[in-house]
Amino acid sequence: MTTRDDWGWMWADACALLDRAEGLQRQFFQPRPGRRQPAWEPPVDVFESHQTLWLVVALPGVTAERLDLLIDGSTLIVTGERTLPALARQAEIRRLEIPSGRFERRIVLPAGHFELCERSLADGCLSIGLRKLPGSQS
């Protein structure tokens, strides 16, 4: 039988764990002015059809001009930069959760050979289509 004190202890422990996780997140996404190394990694979804590998990279506020794609062997490398919106430069920042600065995401591709067949940026997401070339395994 669980007592009220046990529930209070578990709740306090869970809250402390969330506070630690939030602190780590803030540290990971901390802006690093003047630094040219990547400061963050955007999240990626990967989908595979019979002929194409599709990747969706979450890049809120990133323009196409600030993006680069490179296939290096079996790795797709997405790099770029997200700058703070102009309104942030004229205001006091109360909360900053969307990372900014240089980013790099390395995605290991499945075995085989691919060529870029589609690239589009819409609704804060970069969609990438990689066509499987003949002789590709997968």
Description:
The chain is an alpha+beta fold and 138 residues long. It has two domains: 1-30; 40-138, Sandwich (Immunoglobulin-like), CATH 2.60.40. 21% of the residues lie in helices and 37% in strands. It is built from two helices and seven strands. The protein has helices at residues 4-28, 86-89; strands at 44-48, 52-58, 67-72, 75-82, 101-108, 114-122, 125-132. The longest helix is centred in the N-terminal third of the chain and has 25 residues, at 4-28. The protein starts with a helix and ends in a 6-residue tail after the last strand.
Number of domains: 2
> How large is the share of residues in beta strands?
35-45%
- The beta-strand count equals 7
Q: From N to C, what is the helix and strand string? A: HEEEEHEEE
* Helix fraction by DSSP (H/I, runs of at least 4): 10-25%
Span of the ends, CA to CA: 52 Å
Largest sheet entry: 4 strands, antiparallel
Q: Mean pLDDT, nearest integer? A: 86
Based on the model shown, name its key terms.
138 residues, 4-stranded antiparallel beta sheet, 3-stranded antiparallel beta sheet, 21% helix
